[in-house]
Input
Amino acid sequence: MAEIAGQHGWTDQKLENIVGNLLRTGVSLAALVVFIGGIIYLIRHGREPVNYHVFQGEPSDLKTVPGIIRSALGLHGRGIIQFGLLLLIATPVFRVALSIWGFAAEKDRMYMLFTAIVLIVLLYSLLGSGSAF
Amino acid sequence: MNHLEFTLLVAAGSFAAGLLGSLTGLGGGVVLVPLLTLFFKVDIRYAIGASLVSVIATSSGAAAAYVKEGFSNIRIGMFLEIATTIGALAGAFLAAFISTRALAVIFGIMLLYSAYLSRKPRPRAQRNLPPDPLATRLRMNGEFPSEEGGMRHYNVQRVPMGFSLMFGAGALSGLLGIGSGAVKVLAMDQAMKIPFKVSTTTSNFMIGVTAAASAGVYLNRGYVDPGLAMPVMLGVLAGSMLGAHILMKAETKILRVVFSVVIAILGLQMLYKGLTGGI
Output
């Protein structure tokens, strides 16, 4: 019995460490990619005038997941920044996905369901909400 | 102004917002949108997109530190995230149909309310409440390391009310691009009677997930501009990380007063600009 409890605690501890590391790595990686993209962007366009007062919306290669990946692979500064932001938005999504695994390890079906609902909402927002407009 | 000058100025402003937000515990997100719209003349939709992204960065950064302390309650957080993420999605969709002037007015009211909330004394927490059947079924009751040493048990109350408030917090977050941590803490601490320390850390854990739910919609709609989001995200992240490392126990009280006055002034300005059409 004590052995099982110990093992359970070990899994929890391990999961918390993984979650903490995931969040830290996700944010650091995203910040690094955004920074690199920012430098490329400013070297190429730093001297151009700014206009954020008039709203235009972003072109399609900067607002869909496949478009952003294509733009980043083309080494466009703005595309790389946007890819970094995508990594940042994906970090909490990964955390939620990881929690399903954690609840599964505890055999907690109710919370696996709750977590799955949250994950579906997040994935819809990131991948499916574009077609709503 | 060219892009290089703009980037450096916005990064400096965002750094200050992140630093003050983390030192006072009021969050930097609330001042970012007014800063960008009022001082940098950025369209409010771009400003909200950039703000949302920075909210995810600071929340995830802070949650990484909290997760080990044993205060946050993952079950409470996950259950309430159903409400906040659906609310955030609703808020983000709603933002497309609301005029920028109306957005500024709502933002102004929210700022004034936050300033009021930060000055209002918190009612004394009730302890040793009886277990609530729904909260017990949802396995929300928990314990945390108390100041007196040892673990303190708590029983969660009024789950439906907390859940509804969380939907509102999510909608506000999706509509205005803020973390709405204040409303989340209010829902847990006041409505659900969850101990303050558990409420604040669980709220922080939820903010990133909530913001991600609306950030996807903003990204797909073309409201996230890389040139603007870059200095905002890096500036806020650096500022809040520095804030978390500085210990200024004596000064935080004064700083909180100053920051809440700043929030109130920005609120009045947003309200004025929204009503007169200067946004």
